[in-house]
Specification:
Helix 1 packs antiparallel against helix 2. The protein has one domain: 2-Layer Sandwich (Alpha-Beta Plaits), CATH 3.30.70.1490. By secondary structure, the chain is of the alpha+beta class. A hairpin with a 5-residue loop joins strand 1 and strand 2. The protein is built from two helices and five strands; from the N terminus they run ββαββαβ. Strands 3-4-2-1-5 form a five-stranded mixed sheet, with helices on one face.
Length: 114
């Protein structure tokens, strides 16, 4: 099963980290539409943050896990980055609704920095 973990600032819709791990195992290698869909959404989001927003993002791809952290503090760039991250969140929820045996969306929260 794919686990898509979204870390929000407590009490807000601000996403600070997204992490994907696992395998859907819905189909044989190269024909798994859930893995392909989830991978495409994640890569498109990372590319959007990097190329379009040009935001401060810490991307890691290692040991079967892909993740990114959003560290943007600039107002306009932060809004753009959150639009991309929240669009990814909505897309993953849609994937979970359609393929609940293959993907799980997990929400975690962190305390807000003062």
């Amino acid at each position: 099963m794919i686990k898509a973990v979204f870390r929000f600032v407590k009490g807000t819709q601000t996403i600070t980290k997204v992490s994907l791990s696992g395998h859907a195992e819905m189909g044989e290698y190269g024909y798994d539409i859930v893995c392909a869909g989830v991978s495409a959404l994640m890569i498109a989001s990372i590319n959007g943050l990097d190329e379009y927003v040009q935001t401060k993002t810490n991307v890691k791809i290692e040991n079967g896990e892909t993740s990114f952290e959003i560290n943007e503090t600039d107002g306009y760039k932060s809004i753009q980055a959150q639009a991309i991250a929240n669009t990814l969140y909505l897309a993953m929820l849609g994937m979970q609704d359609e393929y609940e045996d293959y993907i799980e969306v997990i929400i975690t929260e962190e305390e807000k920095d003062d």
